[in-house]
Amino acid sequence: MKLQRKNRRALALGALAVSGALALTACGSDDTGGNGNGGDSTASTQAGNIKCDDAKGQLQASGSSAQKNAIDAWVKQYVAACKSVQINYNPTGSGAGITAFTQGQTAFAGSDSALKPDEIEASKKVCSGGQGIDLPMVGGPIAVGFNVPGVDTLVLDAPTLAKIFDSQIKNWNDPAIAKLNPDAKLPDLKIQAFHRSDESGTTDNFTKYLKAAAPKDWKYEPGKSWEAEGGQSAQGSSGLAQQVKQTSGAISYFELSYAKDGIKTVDVKTEAAEPVKATVENATAAIGAAKVVGTGKDLALELDYTPSAAGAYPIVLVTYEIVCDKGNKAETLPTTKSFLNYIASEDGQNLLADAGYAPMPEEIITKVRETISGLS
């Protein structure tokens, strides 16, 4: 799998050599988008492979903060090629993104959880003759970041994580943590557990993991809203990462792409012989076992939060782009299809690993591409 990824990166690097002249040939020289990125030669690197078609004007989208860093990378490439387009993605969180979409405020939404039946029903009001569908586009590990002075490597399992985030384990030198980390010098320090204050698909997936892997210790139902008592909260994945970085004794959950600037991440003990690190490769190993459970054109996935295979990281999420299968607004449909076609393409998916995300498995992304081509 690693060799295959290197080959894909090599292809992506080959695409980077495409000249700006070829970009203009592919998409025209219209520079009326006002996005400020048209003159960036670095952003124009993939332009020769991006098909703008009839894309133009502004495209409004919002939702998952988990995919923000991926969206930023995609938009940089796309608007360099399609200069008459401006894409505005607001990382409001999955819940708010779905609400904005079902109210007709955006062309598509990003969500780390598939649409629920009531949300599908609500989408029919804005999808004339159709409904909202889930297109899995971005994968990755939900890293558990920690800030414990003197501790560089930390192993935790699902029951211990459940007790930490339910305020049942309150100190870093607790016997349960010490048993999993016999060589660590755990300080006598209060645990500062942070969770999302906003509705979040990341919270939904993290609590699904806790419920599946530690059912005796996590008594709450999974969901976008945090249900456990105690702890502290922050807005968005970036807010949680910032709290971990600046708070001694902190622990929280966020996408791997936010675990930067020295933030350390937990190795998760599973049924496998060795604890599993939060890496793109280890997340891909877990996502590869997902099953498509959506019906019709909907491609919602069922993830396995209790993998036993060596190197399969158990806390993963998939971010969906939610769009109407039929009844998209005529003025935004060409741009929506063009952008979604790009991010689902080989070039678009190749950008993900370097940004800390996992590309979709080939069998899944092939179905996504076929579905996008049929949007109307």
UniProtKB/TrEMBL annotation:
Q: Which NCBIfam families match?
A: 3a0107s03
Query: What protein family is recorded?
Result: Belongs to the PstS family.
Which residues are listed for phosphate binding in this entry? S64, S65, A66, S94, D112, S200, G201, T202
| CDD domains reported for this sequence | PBP2_PstS
A GO CC annotation given for this chain? ATP-binding cassette (ABC) transporter complex
Is Transport tagged as a keyword?
yes
Q: Where is the composition biased (Low complexity)?
A: 228-241
**UniProt cross-references to Pfam families, sorted A to Z:** PBP_like_2
Q: Which GO terms describe its molecular function?
A: phosphate ion binding
Q: Where is the signal peptide?
A: 1-23
Q: Where is this region: Disordered?
A: 221-241
What PROSITE patterns does the entry give?
A: PROKAR_LIPOPROTEIN
Which species is this UniProt entry from? Streptomyces griseicoloratus
Q: What is this protein called?
A: Phosphate-binding protein
- Looking at the record, the residues that make up the PBP domain are 55-346
Example of a GO biological process term: phosphate ion transmembrane transport
InterPro entries, from UniProt? ABC_phos-bd_PstS, PBP_domain, Phosphate-bind_PstS
Supply the alphabetized keyword list: Phosphate transport, Signal, Transport
